[in-house]
Amino acid sequence: GAVVSQHPSWVICKSGTSVKIECRSLDFQATTMFWYRQFPKQSLMLMATSNEGSKATYEQGVEKDKFLINHASLTLSTLTVTSAHPEDSSFYICSARDRGLNSPLHFGNGTRLTVT
Amino acid sequence: QKEVEQNSGPLSVPEGAIASLNCTYSDRGSQSFFWYRQYSGKSPELIMSIYSNGDKEDGRFTAQLNKASQYVSLLIRDSQPSDSATYLCAVTPGKSTFGDGTTLTVKP
User: Fold this and answer.
1) Labelling B14: which of A14, A34, A54, B66 has CA 20 to 30 A away?
2) What is the pLDDT of residues A91-102, one digit of tens each?
3) What's the CA dihedral at A70, A105, B83, B14 to 10 degrees?
4) Using a CB-CB distance cutoff of 8 angstroms, which residues of chain B are in contact with residue A103?
5) With an 8 Å Cβ cutoff, is A58 touching chain B?
C-alpha cells in the first residue's frame, strides 16, 4: 500500500516552454502533498506544500508564479514549471503521507527535468 | 534550529561490518521517527519507522530510539555494497524537510 505515482519520469523541454508533472496517490487519499527539488549531490529541498482545494504554501525563495501547483483532488497534485530555463533542470520529487501528520512520507519516483 | 541533525559523513565501512548512523532531533514533542534510504539518482524510500523507546529490528536493520536523549539511530548489520546510499532521518510532526543525510559507502 501507500503508493505514490509520479509522471513523467523524465522530460526534456526547450527553454521558455512549460512542463507539467503529475503526482498521484494510488491507494490512499492525500489532503497534503509535498514537492521537492534536488540538484546533483545536494540535499532534498522542499519547494512547496500542496493542499487539496486551497493554495499551495511555498518555501522561502521559491517563485510561486514560476512553479504552479494545483491540488484539484484528494489523489492528484500537479506541478507546472512555467517558462522553463536551463537552471530549472533538476530532479523533482513529490511525496505524501497516507495516515495523517505522524505517518511517514511516501515518495514518487521523481521526474528528471532537462531544459535545453 | 534544525529539526534533525545527522552525523556528518561520508561514512565508509567494509563489507560485512556494522554501519551506525545517528540522528538527533530538536523537538522533544516529536512522536514518530523514520529512516529513509536514497540511492544516487533515485527518490527516497522508507526503510524503518519507530514510534516508541527501544529497538526495532527488521532484517539487517535496527532502529534505536531514545526520547530522553532525543536521538534515533540506525544500525545496519552485515553491511553490503548495495547498502551504499544516503540515509535520511525524519521526525513528525514536523516541517517535512530533510537535512543532508549521511552518505554510506560499503566497500567490498
Assistant:
1) B66
2) 999 999 988 888
3) 120
4) 32, 92
5) no
CB pair distance less than 8 Å for A107 and B43: yes
A102 touches chain B (CB under 8 A): yes
Summarised one tens digit per residue, pLDDT across range A4-22 is: 999 999 999 999 999 999 9
Q: A34 is written with which cell numbers? A: 509535498
Give the whole-angstrom CA distance, residue B70 versus residue B89: 13
| Tens place of pLDDT per residue across chain B (108 aa) | 778 999 777 999 999 999 999 999 999 999 999 999 999 999 999 999 999 999 999 999 999 999 999 999 999 999 999 999 999 999 998 888 888 899 999 999
Q: Which three cell numbers stand for residue A52?
A: 487539496
Measured between CB atoms, does A77 come within 8 Å of chain B? no
Q: Do B34 and A91 touch (CB under 8 A)?
A: no
Determine the Cα–Cα distance for residues A99 and A102; give it in Å rounded to an integer.
7
A105 to B34: CB separation less than 8 angstroms, yes or no: yes
Where residue A25 falls (left for φ over 0; alpha for ψ -120 to 50; beta otherwise) is beta
Q: What single DSSP character describes residue B81?
A: G
Contacts of A107 in chain B (CB under 8 A): 36, 43-45
CA–CA separation, A84 and A67 (whole Å): 10
Calculated CA dihedral for residues A23, A29, A32, A37, nearest 10 degrees:
-20
The span from the CA of B99 to the CA of B4, in Å, is: 7
Distance CA A96, CA A50 (A): 10
